[in-house]
Write a structure and sequence with these properties.
By secondary structure, the protein is of the alpha+beta class. The protein folds into 3 domains: 70 residues, 2-Layer Sandwich (Uridine Diphospho-n-acetylenolpyruvylglucosamine Reductase, domain 2), CATH 3.30.43.10; 130 residues, Uridine Diphospho-n-acetylenolpyruvylglucosamine Reductase, domain 3 (2-Layer Sandwich); 108 residues, UDP-N-acetylenolpyruvoylglucosamine reductase, C-terminal domain (Uridine Diphospho-n-acetylenolpyruvylglucosamine Reductase, domain 1, Alpha-Beta Complex), CATH 3.90.78. 30% of the residues lie in helices and 25% in strands. The strands form 6 sheets. A 5-stranded antiparallel sheet has the order 6-7-13-11-12. A 4-stranded mixed sheet has the order 1-2-5-3, with helices on one face. Strands 15-16-17 form a 3-stranded antiparallel sheet. The protein is globular and about 55 Å long. The structure holds flavin-adenine dinucleotide. Flavin-adenine dinucleotide binds next to strand 3, helix 3, strand 9 and strand 13.
Length: 325
């Protein structure tokens, strides 16, 4: 396990925003994780922040006085200790494995079911915690079990949680509700497939990558969607009461949800810039780090959108990205 002291998080977080952390503990497999926990105990570190790619994180520019557990992709040197196949269709992955590496591994073993995540930047741990999803599918559909570390237990117990135990819902899970719980390993139950079905799954996977290139602003660092799309019935109705003309879009284009990108654009925020941060004109639910954006640049835009949204519809929008102050 590598230890970095006073390390600028902007160097490793997807958004390229974030202050220095007292310790960054680079964790690439279970052995590293045990070493990291030993380090935390020995140095009596109180504050712990797990991160993966940081593709859903906006972190303050102020120093983070604690240890960042950086679940980082294992450099593959011929062996791969972090991805294993069990009983024909269950894949075990360490939390730092990239979702994309898991997908490639599944295809190589004639297993399908994760192709919807083509182009979704995530580690396995981050995806489980936030129940990552796209194009009508979610990670919960394939999660069989997860090994979870409980930081509140002084012996650092690791327990196995079933899919039901994890209480998945839209972009949510038990791990998100309880910050002491860290995903250590995920077990994914996938579908056995013949060569033709694997080929078809690969086509779907590539088509989603193309879709993202076409419709998402991938040219600058971002955190993906800043706000959650609206899924609750009463909230959708409140929006339709104000903007009845979007009813068709909700039912025909957005699968019953209200797309926040559309709302933010219609509220007039596309292209709005504060400091180095800018609301994307390609997809208004993205706030881009256009030029050395600071934490407060992004936060100010978020606050402005929140205020205008609440004033218009009578309830606040929910954040999809996570803020660490
Ligand atoms: C261009 C772009 C497109 C995106 N598209 C989508 C999309 O289509 N669908 C979607 O759902 N998301 C999307 N996202 C958001 C992001 O990719 C997901 O939220 C992703 O799952 C985050 O994974 P991560 O490993 O980067 O987690 P991080 O951003 O590093 O962390 C996210 C949260 O999980 C916690 N965490 C990280 N690892 C662990 C762990 N092992 N155990 C417990 N907690 C942990 C962190 O503390 C943090 O609170 C997109 C982001 C970008 C930049």
């Amino acid at each position: 396990m590598d230890v970095y002291r006073d390390f600028p998080l902007s160097k490793i977080l997807y958004y390229k925003i974030g202050g220095k952390a007292s310790f960054v503990l680079k964790v690439q497999n279970k052995e590293d994780l045990l070493d990291a926990l030993g380090f935390i105990q020995k140095n009596k570190v109180k504050k712990i922040l797990p991160i993966g790619l940081g593709s859903n994180l906006l972190v303050s520019d102020e120093p983070f006085k604690g240890a960042v557990l950086w679940f980082s992709r294992e450099e593959l040197k011929g062996k791969n200790s972090t991805l294993k196949l069990h009983s024909g269709n269950i894949i075990e992955t360490f939390a730092s494995v990239l979702l994309d590496d898991l997908i490639q591994f599944s295809f190589a073993h004639n297993l399908i079911g994760l192709e919807w995540a083509g182009g979704l930047p995530s580690t396995v741990g981050g995806a489980i915690r936030g129940n990552a999803g796209a194009f009508g599918s979610e990670i919960k559909d394939s999660v069989y079990e997860v090994e979870v570390l409980d930081l509140s237990n002084e012996n650092y117990l690791i327990k196995t949680f079933s899919n039901d135990d994890l209480q998945f819902s839209y972009r949510n899970s038990l791990l998100k509700k309880n910050k002491n719980l860290i995903a250590v390993s995920g077990f994914f139950k996938l579908k056995k497939a013949n060569k033709e079905d694997v080929e078809m799954a690969k086509q779907v996977y590539f088509s989603y990558i193309e879709h993202r290139k076409k419709y998402n602003p991938l040219e600058y660092p971002s955190c993906g969607s800043v706000f959650q799309n609206i899924t609750e019935k009463e909230k959708t109705e409140a929006i339709l009461a104000k903007w009845p003309d979007v009813e068709d879009l909700v039912s025909k284009k957005w699968h019953g949800k209200v797309a926040m990108g559309y709302i933010i654009n219609r509220l007039g925020f596309s292209g709005m810039r504060i400091g180095g941060a800018e609301v994307s004109q390609k997809h208004a639910n993205y706030i881009l780090n256009k030029n050395k954006a600071r934490f407060n640049d992004v936060l100010s835009i978020i606050d402005k959108i929140k205020a205008k949204f609440s004033q218009t519809f009578g309830f606040p929008p929910e954040l999809e990205l996570e803020i660490v102050k």
